[in-house]
């Protein structure tokens, strides 16, 4: 069934289908129907946005964004997010990648600042222990010939263990 309310025009312009109208809605009230929207060339090369219902119900459990690709190359099907035509971050095979010099905030409070310096800020340790800033400055390490290169850094905020700095690979 197709229901149209208001002005909607479907046609071809320059080889592309054009749809004009205010709101596009896809509803399916059957239990476990999990309606989805796909955009791409075929089922095997597309972006799918799907609302997944609670089992046996018609209420949304979660929304899933999924890409399909037949090429299988590294980061094919990657999702890129831009604001005001500026790349902010992407989701790739290995995880989330912030673009250079972008920041990460939680609740409006900065927790990670990029660039030559990686700054973790406002890190709560529980029980009133808070590490406010931890700076890892790659520029400083490269300037200092006596700098140590750490493979890991562990900070025990509740002071129940020992603080270790990982493997010293400096020569």
Summarize the structure in words.
With 171 residues, this protein is mainly β. It contains 1 helix and 12 strands; from the N terminus they run ββββββββββββα. The strands form 4 sheets. It has a 4-stranded antiparallel beta sheet. β4 (45-53) and β5 form a beta hairpin.
Can you tag this structure with a few keywords?
single chain, 171 residues, mainly beta, 4-stranded antiparallel beta sheet, 3-stranded antiparallel beta sheet, 4% helix, extended, disordered C terminus
- First-last Cα distance: 73 Å
Structural class call reads: mainly beta
- What is the rounded Rg? 24 Å
Shape: extended
Spatial strand sequence of the major β-sheet = 9-10-11-12
Order of helices and strands: EEEEEEEEEEEEH
The protein's oligomeric status is single chain
Unreliable spans: 167-171
Total helix count?
Answer: 1
Instruction: Give the strand content.
Output: 35-45%
Topology, element by element:
Blueprint: E1 9-13, E2 16-20, E3 36-42, E4 45-53, E5 60-68, E6 79-83, E7 86-92, E8 95-98, E9 103-106, E10 109-113, E11 117-124, E12 130-137, H1 138-143
What's this entry about, in short?
By secondary structure, the protein is mainly beta. The protein contains one helix and twelve strands. Helices cover 4% and strands 44% of the residues.
